[in-house]
Amino acid sequence: MDSLQLSKEILKALGGKENIQEFDICATRLRIFLKDNEKADLRAIKQLKGVIAAVFRLGQVHIILGTGLVSKVYEDFKYLVSDNELDTKDIKNKNFFRRIANIFIPLIPALVGSGIIIGISNTLKNIGLVSEQSDIYKLLEMFSSSVFVFLNIFVGISAGREFGTNPMLAGVVSGILMHPMLESIGQISIFGFRAYTKVGAGGIFAVLLVVFFMSYVEKTLRKIIPNSLDLIITPATTIIITGLCAVYILSPLGIYLTSAFSSIIRFAFYKWKVVTGFLLGGVYSALVTTGLHQGLNPLYLEMLSTTGVNPILPIIAMADTAQAGAGLAVYFKSKNIKLKKISLNSVVICLLGITEPMMFGCNIPLVKPFIAGLMGGAIGGCFVAFFEVNAISLGLSSIPIISIIKQGDVLKYIVGFFIAFSTAFIGTYLMGFEDDIKIDDIKIK
């Protein structure tokens, strides 16, 4: 079954396009809000070839398809319902975390790809195959850093789509904050009003503020400018108004927000690091089940831009690793042949950083393994936080994240990995689970 046919079958089982309220995509799953949940046939969806699992969580349907396939199905699904007036464009009804998630989810492939290239270049350097002065290393460094050099513009374009404004105009006003001329000007004075400028001042917070403000400017102008003059007047006026507000108001506000954020991070990860690691490692898997974990993406990026390291990623990697440990215990303890197959296949995927098949296909239905996974994530997160293990990029987890762990922290991360994994494994084995649970409608390819 190809992705288009699968999309048609999923749409049919959800009650048709008229029943679709809105939908989003995550790394491995579709998240769909329905107008009438009673019309959805999850059992039929679970029986479709290519579907790993399908569940209701917090009023939305989660259809787990795995990496690669989910992107194809999402595009086909979007095409199938494109002539229906979806509420996806109506951002007024979206909560804060979902808006933030929708902005940063499209950036994940670029960030993951860059993170992997960073890992490759660091590995080649550490084993002595290349030096920092070699052309190969310089090229790899350029390839991996380009996404971070232009990150504000990428975020601006994505935010423009989410806020219902022109994405390219959003990219332009975001680019204003990154323009090299800001550094040479230093101080701007117009009609006696002064603004002190600096390239990238305010970071991602400033970009989000600027694009959000621009969305209202553009929409207001389009209401009052005649259609015949819209193309000539609206874009230029939008850029000028937004640009002035960005330089004089929003960028300085972004600086204050960034400073406050940095202070909170320093307090959380250096003063209360053990508590932070325990809590974040313990609750992260629960956040994944709701999609709220995507709301952490701007925090990762802001930390990298302000401190050069990311202490959050190693902590949440402990949560992912712990779910794999719990799943492996299910494999060894279960007498259910199908459950053993599901758990073993999911463990491999989970150790590569994709946790949804493990959680939705095995641990959550069994309950106790999921709880043991939360415990393992908390203990492992506590350990790596205490020893201040940091990543130098983002987008990876569990085993692959080792390639982007800061040099000198790798051994401490590996110890934390085994602590999280073994804690969840032992917890699951000791607590046990209902081995005869009906999982006939759950399947793993």
Automatic annotation (TrEMBL):
PTS EIIB type-1 domain sequence ranges: 4-87
InterPro entries (UniProt xref): Glu_permease_IIB, PTrfase_EIIB_Cys, PTS_EIIC, PTS_EIIC_1, PTS_IIB_1, PTS_Sugar-Specific_Components
Location (main, coarse): membrane
GO cellular component: plasma membrane
Localization: Cell membrane
Catalytic machinery residues: 26 (phosphocysteine intermediate)
Topology term for the membrane: Multi-pass membrane protein
Example GO biological process: phosphoenolpyruvate-dependent sugar phosphotransferase system
Keyword Kinase: yes
EC number: 2.7.1.69
GO MF: kinase activity; protein-N(PI)-phosphohistidine-sugar phosphotransferase activity; protein-phosphocysteine-N-acetylmuramate phosphotransferase system transporter activity
UniProt keyword annotation of Transferase present: yes
Residues of the PTS EIIC type-1 domain: 98-445
Keywords associated with the record: Cell membrane, Kinase, Membrane, Phosphotransferase system, Sugar transport, Transferase, Transmembrane, Transmembrane helix, Transport
Transmembrane parts of this sequence: 100-124, 136-157, 199-217, 229-249, 279-300, 312-332, 344-364, 370-389, 410-431
Family matches, as Pfam families: PTS_EIIB (PF00367), PTS_EIIC (PF02378)
Protein name (database record): PTS system, sucrose-specific IIC component
Lineage: Bacteria, Bacillati, Bacillota, Clostridia, Peptostreptococcales
